[in-house]
UniProtKB/TrEMBL annotation:
GO terms for cellular component: cytosol. Pfam families: Hexapep (PF00132), Hexapep_2 (PF14602). GO terms for molecular function: O-acyltransferase activity. Keywords: Transferase. Gene3D superfamilies: Hexapeptide repeat proteins (2.160.10.10). InterPro entries: Hexapep, Hexapeptide_acetyltransf, Trimer_LpxA-like_sf. SUPFAM superfamilies: Trimeric LpxA-like enzymes. Belongs to the transferase hexapeptide repeat family. This is Unannotated protein.
């Protein structure tokens, strides 16, 4: 290696270090937590919650309520209505994210009525939630200009939603469900269900007195020190 190559490599190494260190500082400085002045734009943000930088689009944030100890990944959009719409200051919660819920990066919440994620929900990256759709009954009017129909969406406590899932209007997912990557979900999903496919279908459920139906194919290994679930008193 000649002298010019060594100088070039040394410069590249220093530049890479400086750029990465600077980006890390920007990322930390740009994040929003409950103590940050920008947290006041939300209807509420609980203690210990964190919206990573860079944030995605956020419309009518006063109708968005985030619980305690939540994480919202970088690039995730929280949209109540359209950018051109202004919701009244006393609008009830439209997007609600429960305590200890984690939302991966680049997710979309597109809401006009109600999208609720209960406590301890885990959402992988690139998941899309919407509580409304355009109708298409008029064959001569562009679909994007036709009437919007809306139906509330709810995701039960403890549910895990895999990457690239689409959750459609009117969906109600029960407690402690597993929604496989790429599924398109609509309708009522019972508690303790495993959902796969397009359209999403239940392929396994926990049923009291029977256990998992059909049975699990792999035995669950209990790891020392790992938490063990306890049946809620309200079940």
């Amino acid at each position: 290696m000649n002298r010019s190559d060594r100088i070039r490599d040394a410069f590249r190494s220093v530049a890479t270090t400086v750029i990465n260190a600077s980006w890390e500082r920007i990322r930390l400085a740009g994040a929003i937590n409950a103590e940050h002045p920008l947290a006041r734009r939300y209807g509420s943000m609980g203690r210990g919650s964190y919206v990573a930088f860079p944030q995605g689009d956020c419309y009518n944030a006063h109708a968005i309520h985030i619980g305690e100890d939540c994480f919202i990944g970088a690039g995730s959009t929280l949209a109540v209505g359209m950018p051109t719409e202004t919701y009244p200051a006393d609008t009830p919660p439209v997007i609600e994210i429960g305590d200890r819920t984690t939302v991966g990066k680049d997710c979309w919440f597109v809401a006009r009525h109600s999208i609720v994620l209960e406590a301890d929900v885990t959402v992988a990256p690139n998941v899309y939630f919407t509580d409304h759709n355009h109708t298409y009954a008029d064959p001569w009017l562009p679909v994007g200009k036709q009437v919007l129909q809306g139906f509330s969406v709810r995701v039960g406590a403890g549910t895990w939603i895999g990457t690239n899932v689409v959750v459609l209007p009117g969906t109600s997912i029960g407690r402690n469900c597993a929604i496989a990557a790429g599924a398109v979900v609509r309708g009522e999903i019972p508690d303790h269900s495993v959902v796969v496919g397009v359209p999403g279908r239940v392929v396994r459920r926990w049923i009291d007195g029977e256990g998992w139906v059909p049975p699990l194919t792999n035995e669950v290994v209990v790891v020392e020190g790992w938490p063990v679930g306890v049946r809620p008193t309200d079940e």
